[in-house]
Amino acid sequence: MAEPQTRRARIGATVAMAAVAVAITAVVLWLTVDWRDEGVRAALHSWQEPVDDTMPVTIEVDRPPHTTLTCDLIARDVRFVVVGQVSVEVPAGGERRQRIDALIPLRGDGIAPELEGCTASR
């Protein structure tokens, strides 16, 4: 009767080691992708009430000056439905930290903008 418990213990240890290996691999991959962004950061800085079916927004980007960014902005209504979207290109050059003004065209009553993210290209 001692043998089944030993076999179960080996199976449990094997499963635990496999889970740890998968977790370590996932962390290494995540860190690799995270470090590859070369310090690109972007955030929604401010926005204003919609004017003429557009929502004025300002984003703040922090990136190496040689990097071009494409930032995707959306606007949502009171029910969280996307009612506007725009892609804004931040050209290479200039200061590392910049504030960029953009207009999100609206197809409804937008009340809140979101910065979905920015992708870098050289």
UniProtKB/TrEMBL annotation:
List the Pfam families hit by this protein, alphabetically.
Answer: DUF4307
Instruction: Note the superkingdom of the native organism.
Output: Bacteria
User: Keywords assigned by UniProt?
Assistant: Membrane, Transmembrane, Transmembrane helix
The record, for InterPro entries, names: DUF4307 (IPR025443)
Instruction: Mark the transmembrane ranges.
Output: 12-33
Q: What is this protein called?
A: DUF4307 domain-containing protein
Lineage, highest ranks first: Bacteria, Bacillati, Actinomycetota, Actinomycetes, Jiangellales
